[in-house]
Amino acid sequence: MRKDIAPLLHKLRAAGFMLIATTNQPGLSRGCQSRRELDEMHARMRRLLPLHDILVCPHDEADLCPCRKPEPGLIMEAVYNWHLDLDSSFVVSDKWPDAEAAREAGCLSILIQSPWLGSARHDLVLPSLAAVTDKILQLQADHHALVH
Predict the structure, then answer these.
(1) What are phi and psi of 24, to 5 degrees?
(2) Contacts of 75 (CB under 8 A, 6+ apart)
(3) Where residue 147 falls among pLDDT bands split at 50, 70, 90?
(4) N- to C-terminal Cα distance for the chain?
(5) Which of the four pLDDT bands, split at 50, 70 and 90, describes residue 3?
(6) Strands lying side by side in the sheet with 124-126
(7) d(Cα 81, Cα 77) in Å, to the nearest integer?
(8) Concatenated DSSP letters of the chain
(9) All domains in the chain, ordered by first residue
(10) Distance between CA 102 and CA 109 in Å, rounded?
(11) How many C-beta neighbours within 10 Å does residue 104 have?
(12) How far apart are CA 107 and CA 17, in angstroms?
């Protein structure tokens, strides 16, 4: 895990954002990953990153479940569990399924430039997580200026 990620996430959390990771883990249903391995990986993530939650889709593509991205099920689970306002929420990723899930859920997608962007609709593409963090904080400040 890159060491520059945690300070950026701490900035977002300090600004009042809920930090929730959503992840497709089809290795669970395929039998090539154990729940224990996944739990250990998530425990490490929780130690290193200021996450509020980690939500997992364990299904394979063939299962056609509503929680496997690009479906919005994990985002909607986060909305329900954490009482999130989708109008004030962002999905940050480097992969097109996350942008598609954001679109389906009705929130803004911000993608980090990568080879996995695909042709799915996305709202913003920025070069790095640092640029994403700055943009989110700018959007928050602009929103507060409009409201007040």
Answers:
(1) -85, 125
(2) 22, 86, 89, 91, 101, 102, 104, 105, 107
(3) low
(4) 39
(5) confident
(6) 90-93, 108-112, 124-126
(7) 6
(8) --TTHHHHHHHHHHTT---EEEEE-THHHHTSS-HHHHHHHHHHHHHHS--SEEEEE---GGG--SSSTTSSHHHHHHHHHHT--GGG-EEEESSHHHHHHHHHHTSEEEEEP-TT-TTS--SEEESSHHHHHHHHHHHHHHHHHHH-
(9) 5-147 (3.40.50.1000)
(10) 6
(11) 16
(12) 14
> Which structure tokens are listed for 28?
């669970």
Q: What is the pTM of this model?
A: 0.90
Structure tokens at 4: 């520059």
Q: Write out the two tokens for 46.
A: 């929780």
Q: Give the number of residues written for the chain.
A: 148
Contacts of 51 (CB under 8 A, 6+ apart): 9, 19, 20, 21, 45
